[in-house]
Amino acid sequence: MLWYGMVNHISELDFLGVTGERAPAPAAVAGLAAALDAAALALDAIRHTAR
């Protein structure tokens, strides 16, 4: 469903910013990716120490 929106240029469903109308800022995308990566690593460390 998400690909349908992107391919048909529906800006509300365009999660990759292909249409250019509502493309997210690259710094925001990089910051979110870094935050999610840090959260995943922290969760892995917590699970590893709980064993």
One letter per element, helices H and strands E, the order comes to HH
Mean pLDDT: 81
The radius of gyration is: 16 Å
Q: What distance lies between the first and last C-alpha atoms, to the nearest angstrom?
A: 39 Å
Structural class: mainly alpha
DSSP strand content: under 5%
Spans of at least 5 consecutive residues whose pLDDT stays below 50 are none
According to DSSP, the number of beta strands is 0
Q: Helix share of residues?
A: 55-70%
The number of helical runs is: 2
- Tell the overall outline: elongated
Note the main sheet. none
Output the keywords.
51 residues; mainly alpha; 2 helices; 61% helix; elongated
Provide a descriptive summary of the structure in words:
This protein has 2 helices and no strands. The chain has a domain at 25-51. The protein is mainly α and 51 residues long. The longest helix is centred in the last third of the chain and has 25 residues, at 26-50.
Structure, briefly:
By secondary structure, this protein is mainly alpha-helical. It contains two helices and no strands. It is 61% helix and 0% strand.
Question: Topology of this structure?
Answer:
Layout: H1 2-7, H2 26-50
